[in-house]
Amino acid sequence: MTTFSFFGGKGGVGKTTVSSAFGLNCARAGLETLVVSTDPAHSTSDVFDQQFGDEPTPVSGYDNLHAMEIDPEEVVDEHLSDLRRQLGQQLSPAMVNEVSMQLEMAHQTPGAYEAALFDRFVEVMRTAEEYDRVVFDTSPTGGTLRLLALPEYLQQWIERLLHKREKSIEYYERAAIGEQQARKMMEGDPIIARLQERKETFEFAGETLRDDARFTFVLNPDDLSIRETRRALADIQEADLSVAGLVVNRLTPEPDPDEQGRGATYLRDRVETEQERLAEIRETLDPPVVAEIETRVREVKGSLLEDVAEEIELDP
Amino acid sequence: MTTFSFFGGKGGVGKTTVSSAFGLNCARAGLETLVVSTDPAHSTSDVFDQQFGDEPTPVSGYDNLHAMEIDPEEVVDEHLSDLRRQLGQQLSPAMVNEVSMQLEMAHQTPGAYEAALFDRFVEVMRTAEEYDRVVFDTSPTGGTLRLLALPEYLQQWIERLLHKREKSIEYYERAAIGEQQARKMMEGDPIIARLQERKETFEFAGETLRDDARFTFVLNPDDLSIRETRRALADIQEADLSVAGLVVNRLTPEPDPDEQGRGATYLRDRVETEQERLAEIRETLDPPVVAEIETRVREVKGSLLEDVAEEIELDP
Hints:
The structure is a homodimer.
Chain A: E1 3-8, H1 15-28, E2 33-37, H2 43-47, E3 57-58, E4 65-69, H3 72-90, H4 93-106, H5 112-126, E5 133-137, H6 143-175, H7 180-183, H8 185-188, H9 190-211, E6 213-219, H10 223-238, E7 243-251, H11 262-284, E8 289-294, H12 303-311
Helix pairs in contact in A: 1-12, 3-4, 3-5, 5-9, 6-9
């Protein structure tokens, strides 16, 4: 069975590092693993020093490890082309042009990006049966979190739309009693087929997220990060999803015990402040702290990633 | 005349600190200043150690300085109530119930939040004539940026909707030649009035953003932050908006020159890496670096904020 591990947390806390290191650990434990990034800045390619695209690609140097990066712009463009193609089958050419213009404008509005991304997410979940673990590097704060809570709402909505469409066809059929042509409308109705398909997608996404997904939050030992994580945890719980653990990233290293000077004082003050924050995290946030990772001087990649992976004791 | 200063940058780089410090400098220069935050974590209240709400409130301890925090959840709820009230005036009670249910579900979908926030943004801009400077603490990466690029697209869309509505009323009138009642429809049509109002809102927002707004990006001296800023700058330029400058925040302090030990080595390595990133920022990003701010051990608030304000030499 495939387990889906979502790594969340606000931008800049080190989600990509942590999720890549976790993916590495899973692969080393012998599990077929896929790391999926939706970060438009494409950090996964940086971490593994290898270019990834929209399809799963083996990560060089490691067995059982694949990675892919979903390009949000591309997803929106594809979504638009798909819709156009479907319209072409259902509408007259004159109507297609008109609707197509409206669609193009609609794709520039907020929400279009999230909707397209959601579809791509579900597609990846649906076609992942060859993997034991799929690791999503994504942000369940803000936009992405609303996405995860979406299936339930959208399901209700689709059901209403479906009901209305069926009613209106029913009226049409009744009005056309005796005409064989009209009586067959419901079966072949492309709108009902499409709505039914959407409904199944949302059901699948809701079930998978509730039953086969684990959420881990990455945060830094500072007030802002703690506050945002608290909010995100509340939202995740409201969506009936549960969080397995917290990873505290970017802890400042201590100076030597006998070290004196401006630098040592700065570092000791910082370590002290961070320890207070860490205590607050343990005391006031529900999920357990499953890993503490020290900050690095340079961006985590290559052998530094293997170092970090060893600091993560997350159950793969 | 009111100038609108937008501070952008990805989460966690210190936008709230920088925009609050900038607001403080504006107020001290004798300008009536309003700081507006859309951060759901409400950092502005933390920085000034004072609770702010949805209306401008004087900041204690400072002349000419006001602050407000837009609560995104509340904005969405109000938006929903407004729509319901308007519907009540235009539809039959039975229809209101049905549409109201659909609306409630629509408000859970992605985009609803952004749409509501956009309206509130514009409202603040429209009613800000008593201030010389309005400082927006917001993120022009991702969602907010798409918002700023929106007026132009939405304007085209609304114009098409308006055109369609006028056409359909025209046909209706033609079909009802002689009936006085029908001929007067266009003038009093509530949908045309509403579309016209939206059109003016988008025109105002587009003009104000182009003519009276300045954008400043806050970033940290690391790869990820540089990459995201590069992307955001490209998007902002595509939306025909210009960026006045870059603020590099969170620079690591140097140890004493003669300091030895693990701590001093760590800090020197870090400072060296950050200086490389700073050089990259100056060489590869267009807007000038207008301020460099050293990292603080604790969260910036109170007297620490005044310290930071002195490090910002941004032209108010």
